[in-house]
Design brief:
The chain has about 375 residues and is an alpha/beta fold. It folds into 2 domains: about 160 residues, ATPase, nucleotide binding domain (Nucleotidyltransferase, domain 5, 2-Layer Sandwich), CATH 3.30.420.40; about 190 residues, Nucleotidyltransferase, domain 5 (2-Layer Sandwich), CATH 3.30.420. It is about 40% helix and about 20% strand. A 5-stranded mixed sheet has the order 3-2-1-4-5, with helices on both faces. A 5-stranded mixed sheet has the order 8-7-6-11-12, with helices on both faces. Helix 5 crosses helix 8. It is found in: Cytoplasm; Nucleus. Pfam families: TsaD (PF00814). Its main location: cytoplasm. Its cofactor is a divalent metal cation. Keywords: Activator, Acyltransferase, Cytoplasm, Metal-binding, Nucleus, Transferase, tRNA processing.
Length: about 375
């Protein structure tokens, strides 16, 4: 069985092709292509511009994926697409393309929850059996565990997602968006070990990031660390982005703020993940979503898991960052149980809850 996955919930449009062998052996990735829309430094990606980008690239990527996978249209069994959550206009752009291909090729459609796609791809790649899942991305922050054919949300953000917090601070510092603002913050943070006090907001199993963002934006402004001028100065001299340990009372640097933001928000995520692990009695934790690529987050989570006698499962940017194969994987699992999406029910929804999906393909 071969399925095409089409993803376009944010600034990446991606096409993936998966093969599920008839003999029940492990699924194989045949193609995984994507293209990213990057806004200029200091700006975020707007829905209308992102949707325009997706419309321009989606057909090209479908052709490229079919060529890379060495399959034809006749080989394809179903077309899976992201139905939500995400940004409305980009979601609709890719959904329209999926409907068009379904009608042209005579293939069944399968609407996929973006979050469930991340989870199922993470489980496939890492081999995690029944882990507590930390799902962290630009639009979502959730701690999840499976029970009774649902992915149950134990904790989540009360306001903005952790990835959105990082992205918006990157705009404050005019850090480039290419290849990703969070990645560039991570590289800058590696140049510092100086921790600046920031709010730490954990409420039970939930987190809040808007207050942290407001606080660190205020610090950047008061110390004159934001704006394009400072970003240009840092680009001209690496020494401007490094902290001098001999001057502990001196003005913090941009690297100090990036380091402090990462340490604070990731500590919050590790805390609520550990609480969920204790609650369900799990010794496995799986990190998925674009922010899950962050090496420091993986390191902090690994320390916590090791202290509990457990283990951590994580993937690289091929599978953490939004991709088409995760949509193909989750969609094909659904398709094999007989669940498809009629054309009249393919409307996208920006608020598609992870725990609203009937996980029919799991009975453990």
């Amino acid at each position: 069985m071969i399925g095409i996955g089409m993803e376009g919930s944010a600034n990446k449009v991606a096409i993936g092709i998966m093969l599920h062998p008839d003999d029940g052996s492990e699924a194989k990735v045949l193609a995984n292509v994507r293209h990213t829309y990057n806004a200029p430094p200091g700006e975020g990606f707007l829905p209308k511009d992102t949707a325009r980008h997706h419309r321009a690239w989606v057909v090209k990527l479908v052709k490229k994926a079919l060529k890379e996978a060495k399959v034809t249209v006749d080989d394809v069994d179903c077309i899976c697409f992201t139905q939500g959550p995400g940004m409305g206009a980009p979601l609709q752009s890719v959904a329209i393309a999926a409907r068009m291909l379904s009608l042209l090729w005579g293939k069944k459609l399968v609407g996929v929850n973006h979050c469930v796609g991340h989870i199922e791809m993470g489980r496939l790649i890492t081999g995690a059996t029944n882990p507590v899942v930390l799902y962290v991305s630009g639009g979502n922050t959730q701690v999840i565990a499976y029970s009774s054919q649902r992915y149950r949300i134990f904790g989540e953000t009360l306001d903005i997602a952790v990835g959105n917090c990082l992205d918006r601070f990157a705009r404050t510092l005019h850090i480039p968006n290419d290849p990703a603002p969070g990645y560039n913050i991570e590289q800058l943070a590696k140049k510092s070990k100086r921790l600046v006090d920031l709010p730490y907001v954990v409420k039970g199993m939930d987190c809040s990031f808007s207050g942290i963002l407001a606080a660190i934006d205020g610090l950047a402004a008061s110390w004159g660390l934001g704006g394009p001028e400072q970003a240009k100065a840092d680009a001209e001299s690496d020494s401007n982005a490094e902290h001098t340990s001999e001057d502990p009372d001196g003005k913090p640097t941009r690297a100090d703020l990036c380091f402090s933001l990462q340490e604070t928000v990731y500590a919050m995520l590790v805390e609520i993940t550990e609480r969920a692990m204790a609650h369900v009695g799990s010794k496995e934790v799986l990190i998925v979503g674009g922010v899950g690529c962050n090496e420091r987050l993986q390191e902090m989570m690994a320390i916590m898991a090791r202290d509990r006698g457990g283990s951590i499962f994580a993937t690289d940017e091929r599978f953490c960052i939004d991709n088409g194969i995760m949509i193909a994987q989750a969609g094909m699992l659904s398709y094999k149980t007989g669940l498809t999406t009629p054309l009249k029910e393919t409307a996208c929804t920006q608020r598609f809850r992870t725990d609203s999906v009937w996980v029919k393909w799991r009975d453990d």
